[in-house]
Design a protein that fits this description.
Layout: H1 4-10, H2 59-79, H3 86-100, H4 107-119, H5 127-155, E1 159-160, E2 163-164, H6 175-195, H7 201-232, H8 244-270, H9 276-303, H10 306-309, H11 315-318, H12 323-331, H13 334-343, H14 349-361, H15 364-386, H16 393-403
Antiparallel strand pairs: 1-2
Helix pairs in contact: 2-3, 2-5, 4-5, 4-8, 5-6, 5-8, 7-8, 8-9, 9-15, 9-16
Length: about 400
C-alpha cells in the first residue's frame, strides 16, 4: 500500500503543510485547520450568505440512481459470484446487500454524480458517464455499509436506520462480520468491472485503500478510548484519555475522510482533474466540514430535539469521547472533574441529568454557538478563496447547506 505522500503524488497532489493551531485543529501534516471555539468571530456573514438547500437530484434522477443499485446487487450476488457458489450463497449475498446498502439518506453516494456534473462540461454528461458516476457513488455506499455492519457488532448496537442491526437478524449472528468483509470486497469488484480499463483505475483503488485504512485507524482509536473508559468507569482517572488531541484524531480519521473527502475525490478522478492543488484545496475544506459535522452531532446528541434529530442521544450513558465532555474537562474545576468522572458513563437518570446540568453550568451551549459561528466564517472564506473556475464553489456550498445548523 502506498504511503499518504505517495498516494497524493499518484493522484496528482502534494502533501499538505503542517497546521499548528488551537485545540480544535488536527495535529498532522494532513490537517484541516479548524477554528478556535473560544475565539470571537472576526468576520460577519449574514444569513443571506448561507447557501440555500437545493436537492442534489430530481425525482427521476433518484430513480435512476436506485436502478443502478438494483443492477449491481444482481451482478454481485449472481453473475460476479463464482458459479459453483451461486446456489449456495447467491440468496444470502442478495439479502445482505439489500438489507445493509440502500437505506439511509445516501448523501455520500449522491455527492459523486452531483459533483461530477459540476466539474465537467455538459457535453460530457453522456448516459455512459453519468452511469459511471452513479456506480462510483454506490461504491461509497457499499463502503459505508461495511463500516456500519462491523461497527454495530463492535458496539453491540441494537438498531440501525430504524431496524434491527444485521447481526441481530435471525440466523445471522456473527456471520455478519464476514458479510461486512464481503461488502468491502464488493467495492473492489465494482471498481474492476467498471473502471479496470480506465487510466485512473489504480488511483481509485489506492484512494479506497488509503481511506479505508484511515477509517479503521480512527475506529481503533475510538474503541481503545471506550475500552480504557469501561475498565475504569467511575474512577477518578476514567476520563484521562478524553483529550482534544484524541478527539480530533477520532473525528478526522473515522469520519471526515470517508464521509466528506472520498465522494468528492472520486468525482474529481472521474472528471480526470490533474491539478495537484485542487485536491489539496478540496481536502482542506472537506476535512474542516467533517470536523464541524461531528462536533455538531455530539452537541445534538445531548441538546438536540429527538423529534427533529430522529434519535435519542446516549453519548453520556455510553461513555463516549464526545466533544462536549472533552470541552467540559477543559473548563471544569477539580471538584467538578472528580464528580464528572464518577457519573459519566452511567445509565442512571440522575447521573445523566447531573452531567447535562454541568454542561449547562460550564456554558457549553454558548461555546458551541461561538464555535459554529466561527466555523461558518472560516469555511466561507475557504470556499471563496478557491475561485471556482476549475473547482466550482457550488460543490462545497451544497455540502455546507446540508450540515450547517441542521437542527433547524
Amino acid at each position: 500500500m502506498l504511503s499518504r505522500s505517495s498516494l497524493l503524488v499518484r493522484l496528482g497532489c502534494t502533501p499538505a503543510t503542517t497546521c499548528v493551531s488551537s485545540a480544535t485543529c488536527a495535529p498532522s501534516s494532513l490537517a484541516s485547520p479548524q477554528t478556535n471555539p473560544l475565539r470571537p468571530s472576526e468576520r460577519c456573514y449574514s444569513k443571506q450568505d448561507a447557501p440555500a438547500k437545493h436537492p442534489m437530484f430530481r425525482p427521476h434522477e433518484k430513480r435512476d440512481f436506485m436502478a443502478v443499485f438494483t443492477d449491481l446487487n444482481r451482478d454481485l450476488s449472481f453473475q460476479d459470484l463464482p458459479q459453483d457458489l451461486v446456489p449456495l450463497l447467491g440468496k444470502h449475498m442478495t439479502k445482505s446487500i439489500q438489507y445493509n446498502v440502500p437505506d439511509g439518506k445516501k448523501n455520500r453516494g449522491f455527492s459523486v454524480p452531483f459533483t461530477y456534473k459540476l466539474l465537467t462540461d455538459e457535453s460530457q454528461h453522456t448516459p455512459e458517464n453519468i452511469k459511471l458516476a452513479m456506480v462510483l457513488g454506490w461504491t461509497v455506499e457499499f463502503l459505508q455499509a461495511f463500516f456500519l455492519v462491523a461497527d454495530d457488532i463492535m458496539d453491540q448496537s441494537e438498531t440501525r436506520r430504524g431496524k434491527k442491526c444485521w447481526y441481530k437478524q435471525p440466523g445471522i449472528g456473527l456471520t455478519a462480520f464476514n458479510d461486512s468483509i464481503l461488502l468491502e470486497a464488493n467495492v473492489y469488484t465494482i471498481l474492476k468491472q467498471y473502471f479496470g480499463d480506465k487510466t485512473y483505475y489504480m488511483n481509485l483503488v489506492e484512494l479506497y485503500q488509503e481511506v479505508t485504512k484511515y477509517t479503521s485507524l480512527g475506529q481503533a482509536l475510538d474503541l481503545l478510548s471506550a475500552e480504557s473508559f469501561e475498565q475504569n468507569v467511575g474512577k477518578a482517572h476514567s476520563l484521562e484519555h478524553f483529550t482534544m488531541e484524541r478527539y480530533k484524531g477520532i473525528v478526522k480519521y473515522k469520519t471526515s475522510y470517508y464521509s466528506f473527502y472520498l465522494p468528492i475525490a472520486l468525482a474529481m478522478q472521474l472528471a480526470q482533474i490533474q491539478d495537484k492543488n485542487l485536491f489539496l484545496k478540496a481536502e482542506h475544506i472537506l476535512l474542516s466540514m467533517g470536523h464541524y459535522f461531528q462536533i455538531q452531532d455530539d452537541y445534538l446528541d445531548c441538546f438536540g430535539d429527538p423529534a427533529v434529530t430522529g434519535k435519542v442521544g446516549t453519548d453520556i450513558q455510553d461513555g463516549k469521547c464526545s466533544w462536549l465532555v472533552v470541552v467540559a474537562l477543559q473548563r471544569a474545576d477539580h471538584k467538578q472533574t472528580k464528580e464528572l468522572a464518577h457519573r459519566y458513563g452511567s445509565s442512571n437518570e440522575a447521573d445523566v441529568e447531573w452531567v447535562k446540568n454541568l454542561y449547562q453550568e460550564l456554558g457549553l451551549k454558548k461555546v458551541f454557538s461561538k464555535y459554529e459561528a466561527e466555523f461558518y466564517d472560516d469555511i466561507m472564506d475557504m470556499i471563496q478563496k478557491i475561485g471556482g473556475d476549475e473547482l466550482p464553489q457550488q460543490i462545497f456550498h451544497s455540502l455546507l447547506a446540508r450540515i450547517y445548523k441542521r437542527e433547524k
